[in-house]
Amino acid sequence: MSGWNTDDIPDQGGRIVVVTGANSGIGYVTARELARRGxxxxxxxxxxxxxxxxxxxxxIEVPDAEAEFAPLDLGDLDSVRExxxxxxxxxxxxxxxxxxxxxxxxxxxxxxxxxxxxxGVNHLGHFALTGLLLPALxxxxxxxxxxxxxxxxxxxxxxINDLNSERKYGRWTAYGRSKTANLLFxxxxxxxxxxxxxxxxxxxxxPGYAATNLMTVAPRMEGRRNSxxxxxxxxxxxxxxxxxxxxxxxxxxxxxxxxxxSFTGPSILGFRGSPAKSRRAxxxxxxxxxxxxWEESExxxxxxxxxxxx
Length: 310
Prior knowledge:
alpha/beta, Rossmann fold, 10 helices, 43% helix
């Protein structure tokens, strides 16, 4: 894994990939590099204008790319269902699903379905999407699901009795909980896939400290100019580029021998550097917590993974 970079990405010709949040940052770089290696890439984005612009930009940077925009709002389960249905009408399999899109440290809010925004978008939207696309993943030999978490999952464990932070809301605590949920989801998904003998690999990755617009969205929304400026300075002088931040995701999505329930991040203290095995909080490996979160996620979304009933 030492020194692994985009030159090491295996040929992706003939493979179909969905990347959520592919209009900018880690998601865009992930989609672009997979397309550069021959994959047909679906850029699943909430904003049509930004999604189309990203697809156009990708076509310029990779002239022979097979890439298309498709609308997906992870904060609206109807949109998730519409995306999955449209995908199923067009394709009969899915080789790689990159659950990348996310929001960070937002003021308290609710999704279209009434979930706390960070938990609803970062976890529940992706839980529903993966479940609805599961038949296509099972139809592709050696398919992968890559969930993009964060080293900041260590800020907080989930509270199974208050998943929507109704008792008390802290923006960073809610973010940490949503990123812990990503890792618990991968942990339980990997267990269930193994139980039915599937070769689909569920793995997780994180970008470390990468310069993307994720850092400045919340301060800009609230008019906190000093906080926005602080984030911009950190991105300029401390963070690694989006290109470098995407490497752990690309590794988890393509490298030979990636193990189920693995967690890949930057090699230098989890902040920057080439992909390496990443540390994770012990609570993200708790079988019972993974099972309970799974059960609650099925109840809240109405999406059941019938093929993985064990």
